[in-house]
Amino acid sequence: MIERHLAVERLRDRARFVRTETVRLSRIAGAGHYASSFSAAELLVALYYSELRLRPDEPAWPERDRFVLSKGHAAIGLYPILADLGYFDAAQLDDYTRLGSNFGDHPDMKKIRGIDFSSGSLGHGLSAAVGIALAGRVRGSDHRTWCMLGDGELAEGQIWEAAMSAGHFELGNLVVVVDRNQMCIDGFTDDVMGIEPIDARFTDFGWRAQRIDGHDLDAILDAFSDLPRADRGQPQVVVADTIKGRGVARMELSLDWHVGNLAGQDYDDVMTELATGLAAEVGR
Amino acid sequence: MTGPASGSQSGGQVADVQDTSEVFRGTASGSTGLRDQRSTDGADQRAIPAFVLGEELGDLADHDDRIAVLTADLAKANRTNDFAARHPDRFFNLGIAEKNMITVAAGMAASGFVTYAATFASFSALLGCEQIRTDCAYPGLPVRVIGHHAGMSMGFYGTSHHALEDLGIMRTIADLTVVCASDANQLRGILRASVDHPGAMYIRLGRGRDPEVYADVPDVHFGRAVQLRDGTDAAILATGSEVYPSLRAAERLAATGASVAVYDVHTLKPFDVEAVTAAASTGRVLTVEEHNRTNGLGTATAEALFEGGFAGVRLRRLAVPDEHVPIGPPAALYAHYQLDSDGIAGELTMLLDD
User: Fold this and answer.
1) Reduced to 3 states, what is the DSSP secondary structure of residue A252?
2) DSSP 3-state of A238
3) Given a cut of 90, is residue B2 above it in pLDDT?
4) C-alpha dihedral (A113, A119, A125, A130), degrees to nearest 10
5) What is the ipTM of this complex?
6) Terminal-to-terminal C-alpha distance of chain A
7) Which residues, numbered 265 to 304 in chain B, qualify as contacts with chain A under a Cβ-Cβ cut-off of 8 Å?
8) What number does CATH give the domain B53-204?
9) Does A249 touch chain B (CB under 8 A)?
10) pLDDT above 90 covers what percent of chain A?
């Protein structure tokens, strides 16, 4: 239990790091996807600091777990993690999005060590993950393929083409994490395009589903540790209920912060809010 | 003059029925000797080889464990079932879900495979356009998207099953090699050359059982056109399914004393500007393609001619006009649009008189 407690404390610190880096990088760019990164912060750190089988000093290691960030606009939260793990020099992020930078709003596998698949066009990532999982099966590798979907992109038809094929091919080596942050750009998904019941829709396609609080690090770690290690079997989905903009009061479930720009005193206020308030608020 | 030829020179000799079984039952391996419905040259009824796509990929996969093949419920039509029978562990039928197929192929390619994803060109290049750009070409992955039954070779299936826009769309995508096969042997050559070709490719096929242009499997060099015939009075630049009737048309003109060169421009991108330059030396150039007149071979040729300082060369572009084609079997449609050897010969005659 002490080990778990220390692990969770460390992840909580790293989730705060993801949020502060998102704020910092957004100011460099002049705009950023704050809220979509904040909702995924606990999920991303649980994956990268705890769950994924990785060798940052050997990014092309064939037996590594793969991760496809289908909601590519949350890359601003992933880049700092990759830098922190040593995939590249963190100083490369200091000119984030500037002309010639390797780091844009959406991740590029050709330019960034540690990115397994380029993304940005919503609805594609699960298909790519299915292909990677099939490749792993054909090669006889036991690596897992992980894919993070946004909830808004569940309205894309290709997601369900891919979900159907993963069920058909019984890809037990595939795990989807849905960042169910409740909102797409124009509003709540329930208003713009209803996507529930997400877990039932996946199970209808042959998947095994879990549903958790996506900001509760204990719950996330429990869900990940509950995954069967099987090649032949059911693909796994973890539907993580989250809050878009989680961690910064003005952004939580706000229509105004899908993309935004914090400057001046607002920037300082939010950095202070993240430094002082988040540890107590998040991940209980 | 590129519009429909009212009162076709082909008259009643054109086959007026469409052999549907060719598409949906596929063709048995080794079945040959079917009449060339494209050509109205009764004397020329060459053997037509069967669709070799699955067979050739199977041969390549025998010696290369990186090769995997995907299709979208058309394994019979494109004969990837020949591959599936030999390499079932590396064959994936994604069902009628082409966008998923292309991105799955990209995912496999990101894990070290060289993937061939085949379906009708109308669905691979048009429905899957954004997946080809974003998931294959942009990341530089070795995905070979096969668009078969391209152009209007699906005949009376109509516009939903035609692909007369694919070359224009595909050649606009950066970092994508765009190739057309004119016959079975060239298809084999293209597939062999594709295995280690860097980046993503779009490979356009006709019905997959086109009359023979190449007696043997050629060494294909992407971006380098093949001069099939010498000539000094005019030059034809043709691609894919139009290479064969272009050759027949040039032969026919030769009987009247005209010397017409023929180039097989199998690669639309990167485009062989040197071949255009060579063709321009004749002073008259005819492009022939089974594609909309916009943004295909004719457009690429016009661009190269003008930018190369050959604006004085007389250029005619034989293609499908900018319209949705009428209902009809393929051979009738080719005659309708002068895309058979009769029509090409007629256009050549006018070019030579220009």
Assistant:
1) coil
2) strand
3) no
4) -40
5) 0.94
6) 15
7) none
8) 3.40.50.970
9) no
10) 91
Tokens for B317, please give them. Answer: 């572009």
Binning pLDDT at 50, 70 and 90, where does residue B18 land?
low
Q: What is the token pair recorded at A6? A: 């220390």
Question: Is it true that domain A2-281 has CATH number 3.30.420.40?
Answer: no
For residue B290, give the nearest of B266, B312, B319, B316 by alpha carbon.
B319
pTM of this prediction? 0.92
d(CA B267, CA B74): 25
Please state the separation of Cα B320 from the chain's center in Å: 14
Residue B27 pLDDT > 80: no
Contact residues on chain A for B64, CB-CB shorter than 8 A: none
Residue B41 pLDDT level (bands cut at 50, 70, 90): very low
Q: Minimal Cα–Cα distance from B233 to chain A, Å?
A: 48
Query: Nearest Cα to A148, choosing from A36, A26, A16?
Result: A36
Quote the tokens at residue B103: 């991105």
Task: Judge: B111–A109 Cβ closer than 8 Å, yes or no.
Answer: no
Asked if A70 reaches chain B (Cβ–Cβ under 8 Å), the answer is no
Q: Is A206 on the interface with B (CB under 8 A)?
A: no
- Which chain B residue lies closest to A109 (C-alpha atoms)? B139
Contact B130 A131 (CB under 8 A): no
For B296-325, what is each residue's pLDDT tens digit?
Answer: 999 999 999 999 999 999 999 999 999 999
Angstrom distance (rounded) from CA A277 to CA B208:
66
Alpha-carbon gap: A200 to the closest alpha carbon of chain B (Å): 21
What type of residue is B315?
Answer: L
**Torsion region of B102: left, alpha or beta (phi above 0 gives left; psi -120 to 50 gives alpha):** alpha
The CATH number assigned to the domain with range B226-353 reads 3.40.50.920
Q: Are B240 and B206 in contact (CB under 8 A)?
A: yes
Domain locations in chain B as residue ranges:
53-204, 226-353
Chain segment A266-282, per-residue pLDDT in tens:
999 999 999 987 544 54
Distance CA B334, CA B197 (A): 33
C-alpha B58 chain-centroid distance? 21
User: How far away is chain B from the Cα of A227, in angstroms, using its nearest Cα?
Assistant: 23
SS3 content of chain B, % helix, strand, coil (to 5): 35, 20, 45
Query: Mean pLDDT across the stretch B48-75?
Result: 94
Interchain pair A161, B131: CB under 8 A: no
Nearest CA in chain A to B95: A165
What stretch of H or E contains A160?
helix A157-168
Tell me, what DSSP letter sits at residue A210? E
The pLDDT of residue A79 is above 50: yes
Which residues lie across from B114 on neighbouring strands? B67
DSSP B326: P
Pairwise CB contact (< 8 Å): A131 & B90:
no
A264 Cα to chain B: minimum distance (Å): 37
Tell me which residues of chain A, numbers 101 to 120, contact chain B at a CB-CB cutoff of 8 Å. 108-110, 116-118, 120
pLDDT digits (tens, 9 = 90+) for B146-173: 999 999 999 999 999 999 999 999 999 9
How close B98 gets to chain A, by Cα (Å)? 9
**Fold equal for B53-204 and B226-353:** yes
CA distances from A158 to A126, B87, B130 (A): 8, 27, 12
